[in-house]
Amino acid sequence: MAITIKDIANAAQISAVTVSRILSNKEGHYSAATAAKVRKIAKNLGYRKNFAAAELVTRKNRVIAVIVSAVKTNFAEKILEGIANSAIKYGYNIVLLYVKPNNPQSQRHALQTILGRLIYGVLLVSLELTDENFQLLKTTKIPYLFISIAVKDGAAFIGSDDFQIGYQATNFLIAQGHTKIGIAGMSNSSYIGQQRVAGYRHAMKKQQLLIKDRWIQFGDFTYQAGIQAMKNYGAATELTAIIGTSDLVTIGILNTAAELNLSVPQQLSLLSIDGTQLTQIVRPQLSSITQDFYQMGYQGLRALVHQAEKKLKSHYMPFQIIERQSTSQLKSKR
Amino acid sequence: MAITIKDIANAAQISAVTVSRILSNKEGHYSAATAAKVRKIAKNLGYRKNFAAAELVTRKNRVIAVIVSAVKTNFAEKILEGIANSAIKYGYNIVLLYVKPNNPQSQRHALQTILGRLIYGVLLVSLELTDENFQLLKTTKIPYLFISIAVKDGAAFIGSDDFQIGYQATNFLIAQGHTKIGIAGMSNSSYIGQQRVAGYRHAMKKQQLLIKDRWIQFGDFTYQAGIQAMKNYGAATELTAIIGTSDLVTIGILNTAAELNLSVPQQLSLLSIDGTQLTQIVRPQLSSITQDFYQMGYQGLRALVHQAEKKLKSHYMPFQIIERQSTSQLKSKR
DNA sequence: TTGAAAGCGCTAACAA
DNA sequence: TTGTTAGCGCTTTCAA
């Protein structure tokens, strides 16, 4: 039989109510002396709070639903690790739900699973909800926060400033002398993709560089999208640099470029967005815009549980540019 | 205010107890007719069971702790996805804990976090506990199950038959004409590593092939371990085939072989163990022993919750050999 | 600052 | 097959 607050109350010769108040940190209802005594006894007895009992009466639980897109983005795990550690720290449990990418039904199913349980909040990791499912989420009144991928209409999220990512990636390549720069692999319908392209356009325009439509190759952030993009560019492309909008996209471009006998970075510079371990296990290693996914997860959960009462606001995480082997100064025009 | 069994009882003109029994599928205590009626009403009213209340009285909760090694094995995510879906299916929540690889303190911390909560069971994913920490786990009396990595002394686990993996990997290469075969990257202290090497030795011995000590290069399953192993073999190695004991190890070998001007598979065949997506994004694509990590996770949770009463027994998952581009028939002796 | 009483929603034990 | 009673461990009134 586990230790209860009654046991502590007996040992301390006070009522269970006071013990409860002390152990739940309800201030202003007890003296420091009794508090100290109670805490000491609790510790000695090895008391563990029965959360089920507490939840039953408070009608609040400490479960966060985490919905992850099962897409091959390969950075979700880092985010998850951050969320997990943060959850431990703040005393929350997790319901993990994986949804199939680009599958509204799967999304809907996940959301309904959540509705079926009393949960404290929802974290949506690299997930693009359909409008319909987003409405469903909003009607639940459960606090939610998007991580890494934002939705258009001002829903709170933690992620990177994707406009800045696109802008700075482009500027980095321009600074290396490139003028014919492509961007590839991002989803046309995603906010994140639109922002990156907007940043790219802005940088090009600012330097009065023209952009050809075909330089912008949309996709779905996957390895396949990278392959397709490079095939579309073709072996005779005039581009001297390409921004791959995910590590897998960039690797797809890299491998396809090799098939087309384009050498990286001599003939073609590649700059990848994400900066996961993948950038370092391919040859050449990929220069990248590196995001701190762990922190996104960690801060995401923290924000959700700390601000659930107030309105959640969006928050950008810093990123950095790391130069590896896939980019180089443009020597001469091809 | 949420719907409770009382509301249903009122609507159905019966007692709450009967409703409880029906909705909890306690058989043999009610007629099919009332059951049907109750279920229908429950559905119409949108009834959701209050798990906190149920847990309070049954003293059983539905939380599974999942402890994952944060090591760069890159297959943990698939296992996790399986666990997550399985948990949804069987109605369990998850506490996710990441521990640092090869860090007994981190392990201990995770275990103690678990002890602090009433949980139903523990799943340990690709984690090698120290003896001391394993003792700690055993003393808790909480059911546990290892996934993907086994411990020596007969603790229950779900994973692959690593002896068979080593054995069949070696036989595959022998069948291609190789006689000088190395194995690299596995941890010397891990059961999994020992088993794979044992399988390798057995296969070689059966074909009366000699093994040189230096053909067996231990490591820690990481990318770095692969690099180091290939450096140790050297450019002038007599080996014509190497088994990399994880995808990352094999990629490390691959990249280092390239640096040493050894071409794969013409001069050196590589066979990888794991078969994650990584095998397909490097060039050449890696032939592999492919394990079904998703199923390991899915079945693992299932086994834990279904057999918690009885003694859990170990269970092997099937694996398959998939030939890609990194292995080839041995043409001539080098 | 402390406590008594009541009840959260559910299920186990017993009774009918 | 169904119901009555009691209580899980905690927190929230309300009263002292």
TrEMBL record, chains A, B:
The keyword Hydrolase does not apply. It comes from the Bacteria. Residues 3-58 form the HTH lacI-type domain. Coiled coil: none annotated. SUPFAM superfamilies: lambda repressor-like DNA-binding domains (SSF47413), Periplasmic binding protein-like I (SSF53822). One of its GO terms (molecular function) is transcription cis-regulatory region binding. The keyword Lipid metabolism does not apply. Gene3D superfamilies: 3.40.50.2300, lambda repressor-like DNA-binding domains (1.10.260.40). PROSITE patterns: HTH_LACI_2. Keywords: DNA-binding, Transcription, Transcription regulation. PANTHER family: HTH-TYPE TRANSCRIPTIONAL REGULATOR GALS (PTHR30146:SF109), LACI-RELATED TRANSCRIPTIONAL REPRESSOR (PTHR30146). This is HTH lacI-type domain-containing protein. It comes from Liquorilactobacillus ghanensis DSM 18630.
